[in-house]
Structures are given as C-alpha cells and as structure tokens.
Amino acid sequence: MEKVDVLIIGAGVLGCFAARNLSRYKLDIAVLEQREDVCTGISKANTGIIYQGYDQHPGSLKASLCVRASAGFQTLCEELDVAYRKCGLLMTSFGPRGDRALAGKKKQGEANRVEGLRILNAGEVYALEPFLRGGISHALYAENTFTVNPWELGIAAFENARANGAAFCFREKAVNIERDRGAFLVRTEARTFRASRVLCCAGMQADRLWETVGRPRIRIRPLAADYLVFDTQAGKWLSHILSVEPEEKGDGITLVPTVDGNILAGPTRRTVRGEPDASTDADGLRELKKKTSELLPGLPMDLIIRSFASARPNPYALEEDGSLSNGSILDFEILEEDGFYALVGIKTPGLTCANELGAYMTDRIIRSFETAPEANRAYDPIRKAIPRVSRLLEEDIGRLEELPPPYREIICRCRNVSRGEVVEAIRRGAVTIDGVKRRTGAGMGRCQGGVCMEKILHILAEEKAMDPRQVTKDGGDSLVLAPSCGSR
Ligand SMILES: Cc1cc2nc3c(=O)[nH]c(=O)nc-3n(C[C@H](O)[C@H](O)[C@H](O)COP(=O)(O)OP(=O)(O)OC[C@H]3O[C@@H](n4cnc5c(N)ncnc54)[C@H](O)[C@@H]3O)c2cc1C
C-alpha cells in the first residue's frame, strides 16, 4: 500500500493545476490518471478563451476566480512559458434585444470589477473587424480577453507540478474508494493508495466517484459540442474573438483566432445518448458552416482543415425525490466530506480558472490539516517550454543556430516542427502521436499529419523501444499500423 497526503484523481487541466498549487507545500502528492497522458478529456477539446468575468453572476465563486485569473494570466504564462494571444473579445448585437443583453453584461462585468469593458458602435466595430457582415448594431468589447492552447497550458502545469515533486501515475484508474480510519483507500487495478485527503478532478466521472463516499447531490448530464478549424490562411479574416448575441432565442456562435493563427468556430450544443465520444455530428457541422459564413461572408469554406467534438459536463442538483433540478447548476460546485473533495461539472470558464481553482482548493485542503504543512522551500514556479522552431523562425532565427542539430531537421512541414521538438516531447511524457501533436503542434497544419504522422510514429517507436505496430494515435485501440504490417 502507498501512503500519500493528497491523492488527486484525474490529470485534466484542473488536476494538473491542483497538483502544481499543492506542490508549494511539503506534501506527498500523487495524481491518478486512467489514460496514458494528461489533458485527454474535456481539457483537450474546448474553445481556449481566457475570459475576463463579465458573464458570471456577481458574488459567485466563478466570478471572483475568473476576474482574478484573467488579471494574473499573463504572469502565469510567463512563469510556465506558455504562448497566449491578447486578441480581445467582441460580443456583437444586431438589434434591440442584443443591445439590451450587451448593456446587461457590461453592468454585470462592472459589478464583478472587470476593467476596461466598452460598448462600441457599428463604425468602431467595423474598424476593428472589416470583414464582418453588415447590420451590426453594437458590440461589447472586452479588450483583455486572451486565447491560449488548452493543451499547452495543462501540459505546462503538469511538467511544473512534476518538477516540484508531485507523482503522476498514468494508466491507473481509480476503481474503488472506501473510508479507512480518517483516511481513504483508493484502489486501482494495480495497487492501493491510502490518502488522508482526496481531491477528485475526474471530469465526466466526478459525480460517480463522489458517490462512492458521499451522499448523491449532483449528477452530470453530458451534452456534446462540435467545432470547425480553419487553416492559418484564414487568420487574416479575423483578429478578435467574435461572439453573437442573437436577436431571437437560440445559440449564437463564437469565432476564435487561435494562438497558432487558425480560426476556430464553435461550439454547438447537442444532446447525446450516454457519454459523448469523439464523433462529430453532420447537422452540427452544417450549422457551424452556415453561421460562420453569415458572420464572415468572405471566408472561404475550403480553408476548413478539421472538425472535432467535445463533451460538456452539465451538472444538475439531485432533489430529495431523486429528480434533477430544472436548470443546470451555474456556479462552480465543490463537494466536501471528511477530507474528500470533488469538483463536479466544472464547465466554462474552467480553463480560465484552472490555476485559481487549484490555489483555492489548495488553501481549503491545507487549512483542513490539524498541523499546517510546511512550505516547500524548493518550489519553483518556472517551467521552460520546448523550443519551437516555427516561433524562432519568425522571432529569433539566431537562437536556432544555438540548438542541437535535430532542431534543424524538419519533420512536420506544415508547422515547421523539428525532430528535436518531437524527441523532447516524447522525453517529457508524450506516448502517442496526438501526445506529440499536443506538445509540438506537429500534424496540426493543412495536411493534418498526412506527411509527418509516419515519421513521428517511427520516432516514438525508437525512443520508447517499442514495436511501431503498437504506437497509437490517441491511446486505447487507436492503432495506426495494421497488425499484419511488417515492422521496419
Ligand atoms: C465545449 C467546451 C468549451 C469550453 N470552452 C472554454 C473556454 O473557452 N474557456 C474556459 O475557461 N473554459 C472552457 N471550457 C471549460 C473547460 O474546458 C473545463 O472546465 C476543463 O477542461 C475541465 O477540466 P477537468 O480537468 O475537470 O476535466 P478533464 O479534462 O476531463 O479531466 C478529467 C480527467 O480525469 C480522468 N479520470 C476520470 N475518471 C478517472 C478515474 N476513475 N481514475 C483516474 N482518472 C480518471 C480522465 O481520464 C480525465 O483525464 C469549455 C468546456 C467545454 C465542454
């Protein structure tokens, strides 16, 4: 049996940031993750916006964490060497209903102490976004809104938490939890952990894991979402995040200029039977294309290079009679009983608030110990990213010469990703082709891995000393080569 002070279940962005914040203290921390890598759940497919907090109800935990997170985001990215784009957000309206909604959001934002919110008139909006369709009435401008690559952020938190002493255990699913004399026994298929505190960050599974020790209080009813990705050539059509406050009831659309220069369109909102998988929905993708071309009429639809789906963990309160509340829970919900904490159904702005939620939970957990744990004097908040050849080519070509020769051998031609980056990604924890993609950007360009996937597969097999036929695209049974293929 392994004894730890704090056991975190789930290595999504929330689990990784919780581990990072807890590692400021002298504690034995372990993180269990059922998959082979970090950020493969909800954290891998979202809109990547760092919100300022105008959309949250004043007085809510979401509002206070979001405003703080937004104010500290640039510092966080500097500590973790994560790229971000300060593009600002324009929430547009097309008539009186939308105008009223914008005014309400501005007022709400000001109540939350969000700084710099402005209502722009149509002329000001078109000056910022000349390719927008006609007929705009106004826009709420949240100038300090950022976009970030969610994987880059989560992986950075993981690497920093690990460097500060947190142990990450992959392919270890928590299958059973029971109380044991003031502590918890958490079993995986391979071993048992005894933890005095457990923090459950299990995303879609968080409600079920909570119910192994606590009274049922919340159930997650998942919804799915679809996205479209436009090639970097589409980048010139948009420089701010755009969202629409529709005149008639219904969902608008959000268009996002990403850190890498693509445009992301989405998400849709659709019901699913059971738990959502990675499948996209044809109607959802049609709806996204239609709404995108309505908003940016000149944008060529043949610049779409990818679509993907995502899962929304919608939380509902469980009533006494076993029914679910009418509306989903709006605030972040944290359940706690005798040292077992669960973050259940953390939706938007969970990515924005990941570090602040980690700090908030750390504070609660630290205060729950009878004797406060000592500070970890060796804690270092700084983490260095893998050098990105594509960024050096644009910003600092001289530095490229200082890097070892594998950084001058290009593997992914669409994104200028080198062998050096791929190998370093594997050494830092990538075990699948998508794991390499999430750390380096290889395979995210126009050809979507058509050219580089095979090369990456063989580098992975070589570095991990494994049969290339065992390399997967994204874990599980996503093998790339047929078992009958000859190995090289
Ligand atoms: C469509 C969509 C768009 C969004 N857009 C934004 C946005 O623009 N800005 C923003 O701020 N937020 C956004 N969010 C919210 C944000 O993405 C989430 O709040 C955040 O990613 C949740 O992370 P997580 O760590 O809770 O979940 P996950 O990433 O799902 O992590 C949970 C982990 O737990 C593991 N796990 C589960 N069960 C077990 C077990 N029994 N044992 C071991 N491991 C287990 C899973 O494998 C998984 O890796 C969006 C969310 C969605 C769905």
How do the strands and helices of this protein lay out in sequence?
Blueprint: E1 2-9, H1 13-22, E2 29-33, E3 49-50, H2 61-80, E4 84-86, E5 89-93, H3 96-111, E6 117-121, H4 122-128, E7 138-142, E8 146-148, H5 150-163, E9 167-170, E10 176-180, E11 183-187, E12 192-200, H6 206-210, E13 218-230, E14 241-245, E15 254-257, E16 263-266, E17 270-271, H7 282-295, E18 304-317, E19 333-337, E20 340-344, H8 354-368, H9 389-395, H10 397-402, E21 410-412, E22 417-418, H11 419-427, H12 433-440, H13 453-463
Parallel strand pairs: 1-2, 1-12, 2-9, 5-14, 12-20
Antiparallel strand pairs: 3-8, 4-8, 5-7, 6-7, 10-11, 11-12, 13-16, 13-17, 13-18, 14-15, 15-16, 19-20, 21-22
Helix pairs in contact: 1-5, 1-8, 2-8, 11-12, 11-13
Flavin-adenine dinucleotide binds at residues 9-15, 32-35, 39-43, 46-49, 51, 173-174, 201-203, 205, 209, 225, 267, 310, 312, 346-352.
Characteristic terms for this protein:
single chain, 488 residues, alpha+beta, FAD/NAD(P)-binding domain, D-Amino Acid Oxidase, Chain A, domain 2, Arc Repressor Mutant, subunit A, 3 domains, nine-stranded mixed β-sheet, eight-stranded mixed β-sheet, 13 helices, 29% helix, 24% strand, binds flavin-adenine dinucleotide
Describe this structure in words.
- By secondary structure, the protein is an alpha+beta fold.
- The protein has three domains: about 1-45 and about 150-215 and about 320-370, FAD/NAD(P)-binding domain (3-Layer(bba) Sandwich); about 85-145 and about 220-310, 2-Layer Sandwich (D-Amino Acid Oxidase, Chain A, domain 2), CATH 3.30.9.10; about 390-470, Orthogonal Bundle (Arc Repressor Mutant, subunit A).
- It is built from 13 helices and 22 strands.
- The strands form four sheets. Strands 5, 6, 7, 13, 14, 15, 16, 17 and 18 form a nine-stranded mixed beta sheet that branches. Strands 1, 2, 9, 10, 11, 12, 19 and 20 form an eight-stranded mixed beta sheet that branches.
- The longest helix has 20 residues, at about 60-80.
- It is globular, with a radius of gyration of 23 Å.
- The model has no long low-confidence stretch (mean pLDDT about 95).
- It binds flavin-adenine dinucleotide (FAD).
- Flavin-adenine dinucleotide binds near residues 14, 41 and 312.
